[in-house]
Amino acid sequence: MGKILGAYLFPHPPIIIPEIGKGEEKKIQKTMEGVKALSIDIKEKSPSTIIIITPHGPLFSDAISISIEKDLSGNFGNFGHSELKFKFENNLSLVKKIINNSLEAEIMVAGVDESFAKRYKVERELDHGALVPLYFVDKEYENYKLIHITYGILSPKELYKFGRAIQSAIIDSDEEVVVIASGDLSHRLSNDGPYTYSPKGKIFDEKIIDILKENRLEDIVTFDLELAEAAGECGLRSLMIATGIVDGYKLKSEIMSYEGPFGVGYCTAKADILGEIFGNPLEGKNLLDIIEEKKRTKINEARENESLYVKLARKSLEHYVKYRQYIDVPDGLPEEFLNMQKAVFVSLKKDDMLRGCIGTIEPTEQNIALEIMKNAVSAGMKDQRFDRVTEYELEDIIYSVDVLSEPEAIKTKEELDVKKYGVIVSHGYKKGLLLPNLEGVDTVDEQLDIALRKANIMPDENYTMERFEVVRYY
Prior knowledge:
about 25% strand
C-alpha cells in the first residue's frame, strides 16, 4: 500500500535561481528561504516519487498532460543557462495507474512523448514551472523518481476528480509520494508585474493564503474563477488537483513565506499528512458532494431571480436542444421585446467557465425577442470554440444577456472606458467586438488589443473605432 507523505506549494520565478537572477534573487529573500525550507522538508520525508503539477507544460483546454517517456529532462536554456540541466527517471508504473484511473473517471489525459509532441507541436522537455522547484529540491535530495503533470483548463470538479484518481493510484502502489503544486499567485499586484495592476490581485492572494492556512479544501475547488482570472494567477488549478490528492486525510498546514515583489505574489506552503484516511473530514460529506451542493445552490438562485431576458434565452436553448426546433415567441412578453430592435449577446457558463457566447453587432431580427432566441441557440449550438450543448448539461448552465446600444464612432482611445463602453474595431471587411466590464480586462489598451486580435487586425493598421454601452441581464 502506497503513502502520500505531504503536499507543497512552490512558486516558480526563474529569477530565484542564483545563476539566472545574478543578485536580483536577493530581492525575494523570503521566497528563497521558503523554497529552501520546503526542500529540506522533502528531504526529511524522503519520498520514492515526487509528483509535480505545473501550469507551463503542454496545456490543453480539454485534457490534462502527463509525460510518459522513460526519462524526463530539461534545462534553463530559455533563460540563458542551458548548462543548468536536469534528468529524472519517470515512474512509469505509477503513471500507468494514474492514466487508467483517470480514464475510468472520464477525465481526458494526454500522454506526452516525442511523437505526441511533434504531432501537437508542444514541448516535451520539463518546463520552468517544474524545473524551478526541482532545482531547489535537488540541492537537498536526489533519490527519487518524478512524475510530470500539466493541468488542463478543465472545470474545478474535473481537476479535483483527477486528483482523486492520483490518490487512488498511489494507494494502490508501493510508492511513498509527495506532491508539488507549482504556481504563482496574482500577477497583478502592481504595474511592475507582467500584467496591469488590479486591486483583485491582493484580494485573490489573501483569500488563497487564508484557505491554505485553515485547510479549507472545499474552498479551493469552489473558488471564484472570475476572481482568479481577474487576478492573473497560474497556481489555482495546480492546487485544485493537489486538493483531490490529499482529500480525506487529516492535514497540518503551514505558510512558510509570502511576498509580492515584481508585481507577482509568491507563496511557499506545505501540508503534512497527520494520519491515514480517516473517513469523513467534511461532516459526513464527500468533497464532491460539497462541490455539487454549492453549484446547485448557485444555479437555483440564478433560476429563481432570472430576468425575462434570461428566461427567454434559457427556454429557447433548452427547447432547441431537446426538439431541434425554435420555440414560438411566448405570449405576454413586454412591448419592448416585440417592438424594439437591438443587437444582443447571449453568454453561457458551466461550472463558472464559459460554455458559449454568440451575439450580433447590429440587430438582425425584427425584435429583441427573436434576437435573443436566435443568439441563445447559436451560443449553445454554433460557437465553434465548444462542442454543442447536450441535454444533460442544460440544468448546469447559467445565462446572461447583453443588450447593446447603438454604436457611436470615436476618434481616440481616450473616449473609451472598459467598465462602461464596449468597443468595435473595423478595417475593411474585418471587424472585432469586445463587451465592456469583463473580468480580467482592466485597461483600454487591453480591451483594444483583444478586440484587434479577434478581428485579425494589426495594431498599426488604419482601423476605425466605435463604442457602445450594454445593459446586462442575469
